[in-house]
Amino acid sequence: MTDATPRKRLLIRTWGCQMNVYDSTRMADVLAPLGYAPTEQVEEADMVILNTCHIREKATEKVFSDLGRLREAKRERGGDMVIAVAGCVAQAEGAEITARAPWVDIVLGPQSYHRLPEMVARASRAAGAVIETDFPAEDKFDHLPETAAPQGVTAFLTVQEGCDKFCSFCVVPYTRGSEYSRPVAKIVAEAERLVSLGARELTLLGQNVNAWHGEGPDGRPWTLGRLVRQLAEIPRLARIRYTTSHPRDMDADLIAAHGDTPALMPFLHLPVQSGSDRILKAMNRGHTADDYRRLVERLRAARPDLALSTDIIAGHPGETDADHGATVALIRDVGFAQAFSFKYSARPGTPAATMAGQVDEATKDARLAEIQALLRDQQAAFNRSRAGMLAEVLVTGPGRHPGQMAGRTPWLNPVHFDGPASLTGQVVRVAITAGHPNSLSGVIGTPSHATTRERPAA
Ligand code: SF4
């Protein structure tokens, strides 16, 4: 693009998981050479992308109500606006979108983002929507440009996409396709680029990230543990995380990496979904509640200060009071520092949607309330237990108040403390003075005892 190229404005609205956040940055990257610069204002947008998520309740209806508002905005611009729907709703409901919202120009699934420029060109010529929702065998990552925009002190890096697990309640295997692992060389190159742009912490992303088995330089598949150790060698990369994991793919090498790689943070999101073996079987999770308990023991043996987060579903079809009781017991046994819990809601096309024994809403509400009260208590207790510690905090930027800075502990707690803005991007020691329900406060202090084995700032 030359300076004479007219600037166009691109608005991307993102719902859902961190993978979608990452995908939105890549879509912006791929459109930048066409002259699209970001905007937050729909009135000035030449193109709007809704990057959708299918997981939450009524996701599709929310997309349609947003599309209704965009129809007005497009009309006010005399039709001069490209509207695209991306993400998992696009993948799952492409035909319905074009039928119900004919003012949509582009419908594209998560595997087709690299084709956006070509689709924009085709949309300007076509009558009717341009649709790409198949699962091309080619590596879309090969066709995406190098990361262009800095993501900041903390950055996401997709290493794996898709899932072969087919949990009863989940649309991912249908919307994102089967598992695909990016090769080591590509991941390392992207990680180095992100670090050169200022990232100090990388979160490796994948729908089922610990199923990653990308090809190494030797032509053989590597384990995620080995990849983490390789990335930990990058100078100035202080922290590594990965999400989201499946208990069945937590292999011995990855567990060992938690013990032998200080840059791998002692916080792990490990969804369990239920504490009842009967329901875990109905969910097709492939493990029992005790398998999960034993796995947590092994992880804590490798890294004693490891904190866990999880996902819980209340009221999966067939769930009885006894099954719910088993979930509550598992939560008590494990003790989570954080968690995401949801009422089961049917996703069209998934096996659970048509299973017998659908649980009524009032029962689901009551069970979820009990689960959330317990998880809230556990989170508050975990945060309180940080008070008095001297924690290594990665400073992410200014806080909300003048003179205040914000950062993250190794356990992903947000921390607020007074300090200069020049600390952004550094790992500093902060004496934690108080643990609040959702965050910590502290002061930059003198070391009294080490709380982590994290590498200090380079
Ligand atoms: S492992 Fe995760 S992404 Fe895969 S089907 Fe199960 S819930 Fe969905």
From TrEMBL:
UniProtKB keywords: 4Fe-4S, Cytoplasm, Iron, Iron-sulfur, Metal-binding, S-adenosyl-L-methionine, Transferase, tRNA processing
InterPro entries in UniProt: Elp3/MiaA/NifB-like_rSAM, Methylthiotransferase, Methylthiotransferase_CS, Methylthiotransferase_N, Methylthiotransferase_N_sf, MiaB_methiolase, rSAM, rSAM_horseshoe
EC number in record: 2.8.4.3
Compartmental location: Cytoplasm
Cofactors named for this entry: [4Fe-4S] cluster
Keyword hit for Plastid: no
Pfam families from the UniProt entry: Radical_SAM (PF04055), TRAM (PF01938), UPF0004 (PF00919)
Record: residues binding [4Fe-4S] cluster 1: C17, C53, C88
The record's free-text note on cofactor binding: Binds 2 [4Fe-4S] clusters. One cluster is coordinated with 3 cysteines and an exchangeable S-adenosyl-L-methionine.
Binding site for [4Fe-4S] cluster 2: C163, C167, C170
TRAM domain segment(s): 384-446
Record's catalysed reaction(s): N(6)-dimethylallyladenosine(37) in tRNA + (sulfur carrier)-SH + AH2 + 2 S-adenosyl-L-methionine = 2-methylsulfanyl-N(6)-dimethylallyladenosine(37) in tRNA + (sulfur carrier)-H + 5'-deoxyadenosine + L-methionine + A + S-adenosyl-L-homocysteine + 2 H(+)
Domain Radical SAM core: 149-381
UniProt enzyme class: transferase
Ranges of residues in domain MTTase N-terminal: 8-125
Entry annotated with the keyword Transmembrane helix: no
CDD domains noted in UniProt: Radical_SAM
Function: Catalyzes the methylthiolation of N6-(dimethylallyl)adenosine (i(6)A), leading to the formation of 2-methylthio-N6-(dimethylallyl)adenosine (ms(2)i(6)A) at position 37 in tRNAs that read codons beginning with uridine.
Family membership noted in the UniProt record: Belongs to the methylthiotransferase family. MiaB subfamily.
Subunit and partners: Monomer.
This protein's name: tRNA-2-methylthio-N(6)-dimethylallyladenosine synthase
Biological source species: Roseomonas fluvialis
